[in-house]
Amino acid sequence: MGAPETDENSPLESAVAATAVVPVVPLPDAAHAEVTALAQRQAAAGGMLMKAVMLVGGQVEDGLKMLPAEQRDRLESAARKALLRSYEYAARSREGAMADLARGDRAHRIMGTVSGAVGGLGGLPTALLELPVTTTVIFRAVQDIAETHGEDPTSEETRIECLRVFGAGGPGGMDDGVDTSFIGARLSITGAAVQGVISRVAPKFAAVLSQKLASQAVPLLGAAAGAGTNYAFIRYYTEVAQVHFGLRRLARDHDEQAVLDAFHAALMTRSFP
Question: What are the residue ranges spanned by the domains of the chain?
Answer without folding.
Answer: 48-237
